[in-house]
């Protein structure tokens, strides 16, 4: 299906009012749903979420979404279905919903480590399935999301998903092999950034600044630096060099970071997180 087909699928689904379901109603699923609602992509009445208990469903109901404890009801009521369960639970969920999956469905898995091959094996032949990997800032519509399509999902399904999730942050289609790398870079990467923010603020506290103020300034520093990277398109090394002056404070501080092997340590962190994601896929 080409570009015209993709536009046609989006138009057809918009005309019939896209019905979106979530099997699993945890934080990441809620973040994606919030992005859809805030962008006006889907009305709350057209979103149905399922979970075994009411623990996670109250917030969905407060947003005007419909809820259920029955996964099969989500399939019966929705055409675009996000699978947001824990990876170890997903095979049993797929077995449960398999009889209800039909050609009208687009199935999107958010489970880490569960490959498209596995998804297609556990779902009926011909199912339009895609694999999605978001990260935590999706809950504030500033996420980094990548997805890959299965063999039966065409340009139309990919275009529809990208159009919907643009409201949650950056959304890119990638080869499936990149998804585990994305986990090491961005899925886990937000935790590296939080650790760095914590260290920045604690350094300022050590030098006499109140902790709350230091934390706000550290967060704004990271936000501003990221915004400059995205808006200028400059290489990080160029922007870093722009901050340094001969004999100044920044070059002295960077020397300390290099002595602490910050660069190599961060690269190692991305590598081990990626390797762990690959191991999970084989478990």
UniProtKB/TrEMBL annotation:
Instruction: Report the main location listed first in the record.
Output: cytoplasm
Q: Which GO terms describe its molecular function?
A: pyrroline-5-carboxylate reductase activity
Q: Which GO terms describe its biological process?
A: L-proline biosynthetic process
Instruction: Give the UniProt subcellular location, in the record's own words.
Output: Cytoplasm
Q: Where is the Pyrroline-5-carboxylate reductase catalytic N-terminal domain?
A: 19-113
**Entry's Gene3D superfamilies?**
NAD(P)-binding Rossmann-like Domain (3.40.50.720), ProC C-terminal domain-like (1.10.3730.10)
Q: Where does NADPH bind?
A: 71
GO CC term (a single one): cytoplasm
Quote the EC number.
1.5.1.2
Q: Which family is annotated?
A: Belongs to the pyrroline-5-carboxylate reductase family.
Recorded protein name is Pyrroline-5-carboxylate reductase
Q: Please spell out the taxonomic lineage of the organism that makes this protein.
A: Eukaryota, Metazoa, Chordata, Craniata, Vertebrata
Q: Which gene encodes it?
A: Pycr3
């Amino acid at each position: 299906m080409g570009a015209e087909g993709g536009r046609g699928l989006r138009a057809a689904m918009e005309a019939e009012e896209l019905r979106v379901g979530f099997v699993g109603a945890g934080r990441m699923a809620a973040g994606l749903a919030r992005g859809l609602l805030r962008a006006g992509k889907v009305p709350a009445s057209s979103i149905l979420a399922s979970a075994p208990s009411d623990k996670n469903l109250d917030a969905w109901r407060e947003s005007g979404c419909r809820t259920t404890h029955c996964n099969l009801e989500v399939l019966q009521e929705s055409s675009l279905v996000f699978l947001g369960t824990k990876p170890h639970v997903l095979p049993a969920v797929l077995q449960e919903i398999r009889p209800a999956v039909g050609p009208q469905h687009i199935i999107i898995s958010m489970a880490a480590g569960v490959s498209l091959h596995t998804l297609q094996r556990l779902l009926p032949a011909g199912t339009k399935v895609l694999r999605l990997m978001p990260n935590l800032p999706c809950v504030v519509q500033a996420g980094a999301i990548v997805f890959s399509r299965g063999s039966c999902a065409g340009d139309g399904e990919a275009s529809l998903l990208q159009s919907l999730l643009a409201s949650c942050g950056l959304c890119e289609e990638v080869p499936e092999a990149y998804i585990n790398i994305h986990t090491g870079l961005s899925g886990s990467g937000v935790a590296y950034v939080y650790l760095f923010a914590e260290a920045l603020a604690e350094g300022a506290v050590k030098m006499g600044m109140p902790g709350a103020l230091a934390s706000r300034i550290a967060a704004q520093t990271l936000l501003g630096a990221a915004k400059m990277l995205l808006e200028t398109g400059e290489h990080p090394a160029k922007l870093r060099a722009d901050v340094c002056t001969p004999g100044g404070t920044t070059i002295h501080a960077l020397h300390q970071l290099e002595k602490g092997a910050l660069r190599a340590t961060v690269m190692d962190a991305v590598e081990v997180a990626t390797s762990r994601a690959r191991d999970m896929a084989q478990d």
